[in-house]
Design brief:
Elements lengths: L2 E7 L3 E8 L4 E2 L5 E4 L6 H15 L8 E7 L3 E2 L4 E2 L14 H9 L6 E5 H12 L8 E6 L3 E6 L4 E3 L6 E2 L2 E2 H5 L1 H12 L6 H4 L4 H23 L6 E5 L10 H10 L5 E4 L6 H14 L1
Parallel strand pairs: 1-5, 5-8, 9-14, 14-15
Antiparallel strand pairs: 1-2, 2-3, 2-4, 6-7, 9-10, 10-11, 12-13
């Protein structure tokens, strides 16, 4: 069995685990999550990453180890070079992370593969989640931001539609958590932190806000997603957990536009990027 570690690198953390390629699932006993300050210098960041990888990969033979890493952009994924010039990971700008990790882990650079973090979500759902068996799939992550990704039957790619024009602004302003926060305050003068809080509010205000959200989300699908003709739409992110509250209106709106699209809610949520990074690395191995 191939020894493989899937890694999800974010601005404040590294989350990783060994992955069973036959069962297509995370080996829970190897799960590691460590805080990493993305504003630190290069050595501090690499030390934290390598320490976490050693913990998760404990007991694996290095010569046969495969490492898949989900990484935010901008990034040269094929060569493993960071292109982030501002904000997080600024001290890693133009650093060849693939070479650095290979050297520090005592493995070859051919054993390390990078994938965009948004695409990794979709790769994870195709590899071990709700999109297994589909030849094409569009993924949307709805949370603090808007993520969009398309799987074409071979690989998933980040479609980067968060800032696409929408109504009087951009898509993310209508589909991310901040829309719920702002809309609730407009209607009530009170504050919530997101959909979880909204579920504790009176049914009337819940229904109104979720119906409005369904209208926006379906309009986004009609405008930007339908032309991909995916076999399935996969929805992830924290807002996806509230899908039953806007599902009926959302599906009705799609049908009015002659869109009969299968909709699946993420089966693995936070673990999708780890599984996706591992699944992507396995595909690159073939």
């Amino acid at each position: 069995m191939q020894n493989i570690v899937g890694i999800d690198i974010g601005g404040s953390h590294i989350t990783l685990a060994q992955v069973d390629p036959e069962k297509r699932e995370i080996i829970a006993s190897t799960y590691v999550r460590e805080h990493v300050n993305a504003f630190e210098n290069k050595e501090v960041i690499f030390s934290a990453w390598v320490s976490a990888i050693h913990k998760a990969a404990h007991g694996l033979v290095k010569d046969s180890l495969l490492v898949g890493i989900a990484m935010p952009g901008p990034f040269d994924y094929e060569n493993g070079i960071s292109l982030m010039q501002q904000g997080k990971f600024i001290d890693l700008y133009e650093v060849n992370i693939k070479d650095e990790l290979a050297k520090r882990l005592y493995i070859s650079r051919e054993q390390i593969h990078f994938v965009n973090d948004a695409a990794a979500f979709m790769e994870g759902e195709v590899f071990g989640g709700c999109a297994q068996g589909f030849n094409s799939a569009f993924g949307v992550t709805l949370g603090t931001g808007l993520g969009t990704t398309f799987f074409n039957g071979k690989f998933a790619a980040d479609e980067d539609l968060w800032n696409s024009p929408f109504r009087d602004s951009i898509s993310e302003d209508y589909l991310a958590t901040r829309w719920f926060v702002n809309r609730y305050k407009e209607l009530t003068g009170q504050e919530i932190s997101g959909t979880k809080d909204l579920l504790d509010k009176p049914v009337e205000i819940q229904a109104r806000i979720f119906d409005e959200y369904a209208d926006s989300f379906s309009e986004f699908i009609v405008t930007y997603v339908d032309h991909y003709k995916p076999e399935v739409l996969v929805i992830g992110g924290n807002i996806a957990k509230a899908y039953p509250y806007f599902e009926q209106q959302f599906v009705q709106n799609l049908k009015k536009n002659n869109i009969n699209l299968q909709v699946k809610i993420s089966a693995i949520f936070e673990d999708a990027a780890i599984l996706g990074a591992a699944g992507y690395a396995l595909k690159k191995l073939i």
